[in-house]
Amino acid sequence: MANKITFIGAGNMASAIIGGLIDSGVEPSTITATAPNDSELAAIKQRLGINTDTDNNAAVAEADVVVLAVKPQIMRNVCEALRDSIQQQQPLVISIAAGLYADTIDQWLGGHNAMVRCMPNTPSLVGYGASGLYANAKVSDAQREIATQLMEAVGIVEWVEEEALLDAVTAVSGSAPAYFFLMFEAMEEAAVKLGLPAATARRLAIQTALGAATMAQQSDKDPATLKQNVMSPGGTTERAIHHMEEAQLRTTIADAMQACADRAQAMAKELSGS
What positions does the domain Pyrroline-5-carboxylate reductase catalytic N-terminal occupy (predicted)? Predict the structure, then answer.
């Protein structure tokens, strides 16, 4: 990727993506990150060797790609202050802010921009992210590839053709790390009641999840088949799975994901003022 990339915002997610890009071979000299003051930029500049700036407009002036990595609550002010520079430079704009429609950000930037909206998740911070991406009609095939390469620096990428589907992405990956953390928490508590030390239970639960995820990722079989392969008739796994089914675990998960998607949609409307 030979493009000049500017990150507006230098927080954890921006730092993770920048680190991933550099690890994949992108020259640090082609990357700039901005923040309101130099003290916020000193650590990332020293650690990654990238360019930094406290002036967003100056940082955008020669950028081919601009990644908006600021909190949704301040996005409007940031975008409106960048409007003239974005209109003059016409870069690919990628937003990784949750809950803001691509059209809303595009309007704040003056309109007619090539916009990609990205829904990453927190495992991106350790290189195992899962990101959903949506592109508006202004984004070229070449720009889609740039966005793909950028987010693949921290994990896998899946494109959706309708922006509304990002609410489903939020439910299945964006918010989902917390679902698994809850599962670890519940398994640890149950194992302690069965007599295991908490630290032992936690290590076993997390390692088992890692192993199961790796098996599912590498296998050509679907999860239902993999599950069935572990269930010996009349055995311990079958008994546990039957108990979960009788407790309507599937319904609980489906209802939770629907609630997540509904809240994502509501937040987008609230933040856009619609």
Answer: 4-99
Q: Which domains are delineated in the chain?
A: 5-164 (3.40.50.720), 174-266 (1.10.3730.10)
Q: Does the annotation place 72 within a ligand binding site?
A: yes
Could you report the average pLDDT of every consecutive run of 10 residues in the chain (274 residues)?
89 95 95 92 94 97 96 94 97 94 96 97 95 98 97 97 95 97 98 98 98 97 97 96 97 98 90 72
Annotated binding-site residue? 8: yes
Query: Annotated binding residue at 197?
Result: no
b/e code 165-203 from CB counts within 10 Å (16+ = b):
bbbbbbbbbbbbeeeeeeeeeebbeebeeeeeeeeebbe
Task: Say if residue 51 carries a ligand binding annotation.
Answer: no
91 annotated among ligand-binding-site residues: no
CA gap 200, 142 in Å, rounded: 49
> Would you say 71 is a known binding-site residue?
yes
- Predicted TM-score (pTM) of the model is 0.91
